[in-house]
Write a structure and sequence with these properties.
The complex is a heterodimer of chains A (about 80) and B (about 300). Chain A contains no helices and 9 strands. By secondary structure, chain A is mostly beta strands. Chain A has one domain: ATP Synthase, domain 1 (Sandwich). In chain A, strands 1, 2, 3, 4, 5, 6, 7, 8 and 9 form a 9-stranded mixed beta sheet that branches. In chain A, a hairpin with a 4-residue loop joins strand 5 and strand 6. Chain A starts with a strand and ends with a strand. Chain B has about 300 residues and is of the alpha/beta class. Chain B folds into 2 domains: about 60 residues, ATP synthase, gamma subunit, helix hairpin domain (Helix Hairpins, Orthogonal Bundle), CATH 1.10.287; about 220 residues, 3-Layer(aba) Sandwich (Pyruvate Kinase, Chain: A, domain 1), CATH 3.40.1380. A 5-stranded mixed beta sheet of chain B has the order 3-2-1-4-5. About 0% of the residues of chain B have low confidence. Classes of the chains: A mainly beta (about 80), B alpha/beta (about 300).
Chain lengths: ~80, ~300
């Protein structure tokens, strides 16, 4: 499963991951492999990625949009507060 | 024959001018590279955002949604023109083009607003601000300091300010005038309507739409995406203008350096001719002096 996290200023993260937890408008949710296609707006909050090596990467975003389609995740973040 | 000293002084001044222009050219080239990178970085974000929005708008075309960003009926027609120029000069016709276009808007498209005092300006860039002040235009705000830290955060603040001016019915139309970056040598002057938001661009139905789950729901997402796209639109315009400025300056300085080189060649030739003539004269004097003594 592949993810790209993009802000208007630069690409923050790209790579293969196991899962990602994002702060959805209707509550935080996790995307695992073979998740159904979804488009959701995001609130300010943490994005937590579990990468292939079992490590954890965390970003705090100030809002954005996520699109999941066929194990391809694109996360458009307004701004990443700290990484 | 011009005197030797005058030519020598001129030559050295042209040489130092050339040094300055070629240094400026190099600086502009480096800055252009950076500005271009910023545009390239923005592109995937902007494209994806547009794609999502276009897909959603197509799906929502038939359902009437109240769109506060769309054109208002019975508006009084107050217009705000945002003129994007540079803070510094020496970049060819870059700023002059924007000013010319703004004047054209004043006399043609918005001449009635101009007469009624319904045409206001906002400037980004000192050069545009100075020029419009000279034209005695009504400038509401100046955001020239934006260039010192041109990042998304600062542009967002300006975009939100513009949106708020529109939504509070302060203005009914907001236009952007800026130079679009084509390549280092070519800038294209662009006039675009920032607000109201024009009807969503046509997309082929069914190309983008997979069976998505929408959270919270389609209308809410579109409502949230429009301000985002507005920010991106402004950010893109400013980045474009920024890159175009450096492109224009690089080209102008390149030209100036070439001209200086030509001038130096001519002056050197002139100098050598003058020097030779002076030597010939002196020889003639010596020889004729000796002749006279022998006489």
């Amino acid at each position: 499963m592949n993810i790209e996290i993009i802000t208007p200023d630069k690409k923050i993260y790209a790579g293969d991951i196991r899962s990602v937890r994002v702060p959805g408008r209707k509550g935080s949710f996790q995307v695992l492999k073979d998740h159904a296609p979804i488009i959701s707006t995001l609130e300010a909050g943490p994005v937590i990625i579990a990468d292939e090596q079992g490590g954890e990467v965390r970003f705090d975003i100030s809002g954005g949009v996520i699109e999941v389609k066929k194990n391809r995740i694109i996360l458009l973040a307004d701004a990443v507060i700290q990484s | 024959m011009a005197n030797l000293k005058a030519i020598r002084v001129r030559l050295s001044s042209v040489k130092s001018t050339r040094q300055i222009t070629s240094a400026m050219k190099m600086v502009a080239a480096a800055k252009l590279r950076k500005a271009q990178d910023a545009i390239v970085q923005l592109r995937p974000y902007a494209d994806k955002l547009n794609e999502i929005q276009a897909g959603l708008s197509a799906a929502l075309r038939d359902t009437e949604i109240e769109n506060i960003y769309a054109e208002r009926k019975n508006s009084r027609g107050k217009v705000l023109v945002v003129a994007v120029t540079s803070n510094k000069g020496l970049c060819g016709a870059f700023n002059a083009n924007v000013i010319r276009d703004v004047r054209r808007l004043m006399t043609e498209k918005y001449s009635s607003q101009m007469r009624d005092g319904d045409l206001s300006f906002m400037t980004v860039g000192k050069k545009g601000n100075d020029a419009l002040k000279r034209l005695k235009c009504h400038i509401v705000e100046d955001h020239s300091d934006l260039y010192s830290h041109l990042n998304f955060e600062n542009v967002t603040a300006l975009a939100d300010r513009l949106t708020q001016l529109y939504l509070s019915k302060e203005y009914d139309t907001i236009e952007l005038v800026y130079n679009q970056f084509r390549n280092a040598a070519i800038q294209r002057l662009t006039e675009e309507t920032y607000l109201p938001v024009s009807a969503a661009a046509e997309v082929e139905k069914g190309t983008i739409q997979a069976d998505y789950i929408y959270e919270p729901d389609q209308v809410a997402i579109v409502g949230e995406l429009i301000p985002k796209t507005l920010r991106i639109q402004l950010y893109r315009a400013l980045l474009d203008s920024f890159a175009a400025e450096h492109g224009a300056r690089m080209t102008a300085m390149h030209q100036a350096t070439d001209n200086a080189t030509d001038l130096i060649r001519d002056l050197t030739l002139q100098y050598n001719k003058a020097r030779q003539a002076a030597i010939t004269n002196q020889l003639l004097e010596v020889v004729s002096g000796a002749e006279a003594l022998n006489g």
